[in-house]
Automatic annotation (TrEMBL), chain A:
A GO MF term: acyltransferase activity
Domain Beta-ketoacyl synthase-like N-terminal: 33-187
Record Gene3D superfamilies: 3.40.47.10
Database matches in Pfam families: Ketoacyl-synt_2
Protein name (Swiss-Prot/TrEMBL): Beta-ketoacyl synthase, N-terminal domain protein
SUPFAM superfamilies: Thiolase-like
Amino acid sequence: MLSAVIESVGYWSRGLPSWEAACAFAVHDDLVADAPARPSPQLLAPNERRRAPETVAVALEVALAACQAAGRDPASLPSVFVSCHGDMAITDYMCATLASEPRTISPTRFHNSVHNAAAGYWTIGAGAMQPATALSALDASFAQGLIEALAQIAAGDEAVLLVGYDGAATGPLQTMWDSRGLLGTALVLARAPADGRARGPVLRAWLGDDPPSPLDGKLSRRETGNASAAMLPLFDALASGHDRLALPAGGGRTLRVELAHD
Amino acid sequence: MPPLAIRAYTATTALGRGLDAQASALRERRSGLRRNDLTPLAAGEAPLDCWIGRVDGLEGAALPAELSQWESRNNRLAWLSLQHDGVREALAAVVARHGAERVAVIVGTSTSSIGATEEAYSRLRNDGREFPEDLARPTLHTPHSLGAFVADATGLRGPCVTVATACSSSAKVFAQAARLIAAGLADAALVGGVDTLCGSVLFGFNSLQLVSNAPCRPFDAERIGLSLGEAGGYAVLERLDDGERAALELRGYGESSDAHHMSSPHPEGLGARLAMGDAMTRAGIDAAEVGYLNLHGTATPANDKIEALAIAALFPDTLHASSTKGWTGHTLGAAGIVESAFALLALEREHLPGTLNSVVPDPANGPQIRFDSADTRIRYAMNNSFGFGGNNCSLVFARP
């Protein structure tokens, strides 16, 4: 069995631009009155902040929020970035341009088209020379990212940053995968301290064959159209103090998660 | 780290299908590169003026009927690459020992089946709103197309994930598998990577002005850019029993980030040095023990210079280091597994490849970077794979 302390959480969706806002919504149905329409990650230089794809912006926003909430230097953490589809707006742009004027592909859009664009911008912005990875596994993406982050801790890392995000589908691609909204979450996961005094809920996880938790929590129902929604039972449980859930892990299996809240 | 057994490995590239084809072309210094003959999807566009490492016969290599819903150039190459060098037999053996749920599938790619998405966009129906019927298969049009296909095609049921960190993807799969097995979530893993030539990579790298109009010349003073290629490959990794030694082992991995730029490397190669250093530390060896190093060596002016600097700083003059991109082209997300296979071949067959097409060494090259091949028995071989976003991975393999 794998385990870690959840030192902090980052969260951003339209209308819920922080983990505090997400918790207030999950518990009291409160919404933020004048929430920003787009994340604005302070880690990027102002011109890059405006130009960054939304998926990159949301990933960096939640990653930085989680590091700050944990009191961890962003440069010190290895990171795992998970996204089901990467940036579908860029995929749409690349494919549409290739079908008409292939020699006009924008070099910036091309280098932003890699699945590890968010991870790359994060390590550059944070000055993190620690390893970063970028994974995809359809609705099992977040569970597989969580497994990788927990395995990194088991292999000796003291703390790991895990980020999950997906944006909206655009163009003809949305007839294949109709992802909506913009959603990002982040966790700073750390090895449990030897003295037992954890700075946050303790998470334990193992693979099983039970069905995944239904998407019936308030955060899950709110973002149900986003490709990353399968991760939300974990965030609903963290917001509401629930202690058991199962995330789809691929191949018909689930990642069982138990939370011991502090 | 606890060493892992490599029960089987394979590669399929422009040099041919399976290890014997790779080994003989490396020994005979026979390149797989050809003038680009891939017609763009856009009407009236000429092929880019460049050289490519194309795998022969993919157009006629349809998937078996029961897998036909996965049809794409990338999945064809994923399937074709799986049929060689005892990989399927090794998988059957690890499944028999541990059960299908205890064997993970961890594969790397940069573009997965996006070639199929590109094609769909070139044949849209209904005023450009709908995919053509034959390509309206959602699991092709997502990065996990590769991992999901390989899991379906092999019946493996352990954790399954597609790593997509650009050109370091299928090196990092070894690191991830090692952690997963050490953490007890699997007893064995099929690792690998597949990337196929498509418009995104050809015109994308062209937009960055990184593509050479002649066959690439890694570490040559006159190099002007890379040649793109396609390839697939796999390795079957398994936990070793106490005291057991395997014929070939994964001994170490090192990963790092440059923290510098999305598409150009750290000017002093700091990230590369960190990855190589960590891989050797994990393997418990020092730099003098590495017998062969397969360099990332893409043949772009900047990348090779920085890798050469890092190699000169880390290794004694006795190291034999080379780039094999002149044989295969840069196979992007598959480079990690292909060049790991070349490193394993160097261990097994005692032939250390040189660097094809390159004649005049760049003044920045140290004596480690060899253009000529050598026949030497070695114990440790290493592979470097570096990708966009400054994402680095180095691997150490051993023949105990």
